[in-house]
Amino acid sequence: MEWDEVQRQIPIATLNIAINKFTEHEAVEHDFLVERWPEIGSVLWNAELVLKEHDDVEAVARSVADNAVKYEMLHHSLLEHAVLHVRHHLEQ
To answer: Where are the beta strands (DSSP E) in the chain?
Structure first.
């Protein structure tokens, strides 16, 4: 595996570990998550678009992720991954 690919996959693996260790939800197979990483990125992008200054980041993330699942733009097993990813990026 090329170093660039290793660097790209480290945050993906870290998110999966965090889901498994710090939430009541389970991790998914790493390759499954890597293949669908653009879906997670899309939720982040959309959440950034709709988030207003005093909004609750988790509520916005969950709403965007729920809609993405509803319209089959996000696999249902990745909903919590998407919410955690958005929170990580937007609550810093």
So the answer is: none
